[in-house]
Structures
1.
Amino acid sequence: MYADALRSTFPDLDPGVDDLFLLEPHQIAELPERAPSRELAAVLHAHSTVCGFLLRRHPAIEGYLTELLADHGPVAEGELAACEQALVWELADWIAYQRAPEMYDAGAQVDWDLAAVTELVTLDGQVVIDAGAGTGRVALAAAAVARHVYAVEPVATLRRYMRARATRLGLDNLFAVDGFLHAIPLPDASADVLVTCQAIGWELEDELLEIRRVVKPGGTALHLFGASSARDSDNPLLRALVTHGYQPDTYDDGSVVIQRYCLQIGAGPELNRDPVG
Ligand SMILES: C[S@@+](CC[C@H](N)C(=O)[O-])C[C@H]1O[C@@H](n2cnc3c(N)ncnc32)[C@H](O)[C@@H]1O
């Protein structure tokens, strides 16, 4: 269960049911895949305001919630607290984004080293997009050498956190932009390099099309993953990247291991909107 990993990553977080009011619409849309059904139903039966909040914030969730509440009845009073904890811990990274970005930053899944990028492509004087930028670990490092860095991130708290860090570091070339990888709010052919770190695959086919649109012909797209992903040869996301022409390799400097998937735009097979087989 993801909750176990999150409990050890964020030992001081102490999430509660009221943290569910911090969820963003795109996160509510992901609840069917992320939230344990029985526990979510138990919480919604017991806390009708949370249910109302989710419906208001992301109306398209209504069909799923209606079915969920019909399939799972309320739990006994003595069981409710355990259900609440199981649910909020399963979503604890989203809660950490909102309540404690610095905790998320400290517990990030991938140790980071800009050399993992610059070994493959120079960022000096380049226009770089870091998509799914989180607390800006990649974007801030890139901004030290790049001309401009556009850090695309849908969570407002994380964009604010990133901006504050850029200001403290005296970086005036980092722009934190609201957006998604499948809908990047930047013009065609506007970037030399696009990087993601543990941040691709929500809507992969549309994301790959967006990447080809925003990166200049001859530019580079690079997706980074932690060492555990590197061992997962059955990971359908990683296989799909290879199908789309990305070249896999591993960066290993003795302390940091990063799996990289790199594509020179204009060099891979043309994409279409058919799902990857
Ligand atoms: C696992 S974190 C990685 C953050 C950062 N790249 C790092 O390495 O620390 C994933 C990030 O992607 C953001 N995100 C979620 N859905 C997204 C989407 N559809 N498009 C772009 N970013 C998204 C999350 O808010 C989160 O900040």
2.
Amino acid sequence: MPSSLLVYSPSTSSVFPSPQLLRVRLQLPFGVALFFRWCRLRSGEEEDDGCCLSLLLQVRVRRPAPVFGLPSVYVSSRSLPPLSSVRVCVFGVFVVPLEKMKIISPIIMGVNNILSDASPPNSFINLDQGDTALLESYWRKMKEECAVVIKGCELLSYVSDRSNVCWFMMPELTDAIKKLHALVGNAETDDRHIVVGNGSTQLFQASLFALSSSSSSHSPNPINVVAASPYYSGYPDETDLVRSSLYKWSGDAKEYDKNEAYIEIVTSPNNPDGSIRTPVASNRRGVEGKLIHDLAYYWPQYTPITHKADQDLMLFTFSKCTGHSGSRIGWAIVKDIDMAKKMTTFVVLNSIGVSKESQTRAAKIMEVVCNSYENFKLGSKNSELFFEYSKCLIKERWGKLREVIKQSDYFILPNFPKAYCNFTNESSETYPAFAWLMHKKDEDGVGYLEKKLKVLARSGNRFGSGPRCARINMLSRDEDFDEFLRRLSNIKEIGY
Ligand SMILES: Cc1ncc(COP(=O)(O)O)c(C=O)c1O
């Protein structure tokens, strides 16, 4: 907002159901309603994703406020980005008599809703993918501390540490990962091998290779790979992509009844539904399978840290730990040296290691997180601490979503039990990175969201459960999340 306007902090109002309300003092004898559109600008260009939303700017005159004796003007918008980053174009101005303003404003709001929803394809909100834009605000505050300079003469070699099983892993990253786990207390790293990968996606495939080619798996047939539904939608595709003769996707672990060897993926907290999980499959002879523990979300911003995980093969990712998915860094913590060697071989034959630029950056960011806890002084603000800060943001979003869903005739959400978190020293719920919305009336949840609300979500079909459920990203950009909530809460008003 221009600094010459006196702006009150955002709040909500019964007259204006929009999430953001700015109050500006002006002396006007009438109300003005403006319709305008805005496009976000990035480096002077319109944003390449074509995001272009309709907003309603309402200006409303009040009778003189008793304290100051001045009329007030209200400006409301769905979500107002910084004006320096948008191009605004006004396409309607209406002057409204003061006494009609109260009647007219909800009507204008409704028209605006319809207008914004009726401008395909740019009014779609994409909550399908798992990006972590919500965490950006923390890293913006820490941008100087996290900056890394890499000179042209550095990092030329493929090799990082010949004495390590995972010889392309930089020692500073190994140290930073161990330090971070020691700080959080979510995984044992002593006497374990750490293998770095291009995201945990690559390490998942390396795990399948290592487990299915080990000496204990003599089977002439591909080993079955299972996970309890709803399971992460990446697993089936990644397992079957190259039609390996070593392993094949075999569906829901709860229904596994073959008398054959298997690998079960245990994801906890689970993507998409946030549940805390343990293995469920067993073959007909009651023989246990091999396990991959995907602990991508076992961090304090998402769930209470109840124990130090100590399984044979655990996968973690920088993407979900700090939100830096673009760096493509994941790591496996492995007990058995032969497994670690096989996984290393897979990464070598697949990509001859992992970018050292990314490793350097990941190590730096983890170090900044750890240092902020080490240097934290009594009396400082919790908002300086990454896990506390991000948990607060995610929890707030869950609170808002639950409020809207409580009023909804169409959707329900899962509930999560409370548990004591050894890291934050308080009892807490799980606040997953995704919301698993179930349509109350057994209808196609994603179809409903897409057709009625122009919200793109990922269908339950992709997670091995029915189309009734839809997965929504809870870590999307503020404007997308706020707009999603607004549309969800306005379902009745706009006649769906
Ligand atoms: C459970 C789970 N495992 C693995 C991944 C892949 O993570 P990465 O970005 O490290 O490849 C994701 C990404 O969403 C995930 O949700």
